[in-house]
Amino acid sequence: xxxxxxxxxxxxxxxxxxxxxxxxxxxxxxxxxxxxxxxxxxxxxxxxxxxxxxxxxxxxxxxxxxxxxxxxxxxxxxxxxxxxxxxxxxxxxxxxxxxxxxxxxxxxxxxxxxxxxxxxxxxxxxxxxxxxxxxxxxxxxxxxxxxxxxxxxxxxxxxxxxxxxxxxxxxxxxxxxxxxxxxxxxxx
Length: 188
Hints:
Helix content: 40-55%
Shape: rod-shaped
Structural class: alpha+beta
CATH topology of the largest domain: Alpha-Beta Plaits
Order of helices and strands: HHHHEEEHEE
C-alpha cells in the first residue's frame, strides 16, 4: 500500500482540515476581486456624495451669483454706443479731445457699414466705425489713443496713419485713424 494513503487512513481529521484550508484559501482568492470592486464602487459613491454636498452648499449662493452676473451684464450694456445716436457718439470723441489736448480736424461715423458680433448666428453687439483725423504733440497723440482704448466705450484702433505735421505748427503730428467701437445690437 502507498505510504501516502496509509497516512491518510491513519489521520482522516488532518486530511479534512487540509481540504477545508484549501477551500477557504480558494474562496478568499475568488472574493478578493469582488472586494476590490466593492471598494472602488464605495469610493466612487463617496466622491459623488461629496460633490452633491458641495453643490448643495454652493446652491445657496446661486441667487447672489446670478444678481452679480446681471450687474456685470448691465455694466457692459451701459458702456455700449448706440448707432443711431450720432451726436452723442461724436461727442464722446470730442470729450477725449479736450482731455488729451489734441485738435480733431475730421470726425465722422460710418453709418453705412454695419458689422456685428454674433455667437451661433445670434447677434449680440454691433460694431460702429469712426474715421478720425487729429493733430497734436506726440505726448498728446499717445494720450488721446490711450484714452480711446481705455475709455468708457469698448474701442479698437483698426488703422492708424501718423505723419509729420508740416501744415500745422512745428512739432505736431497729423494722425488719421479708423476706430471701431462696440455698440448695442442694431434694432431694425
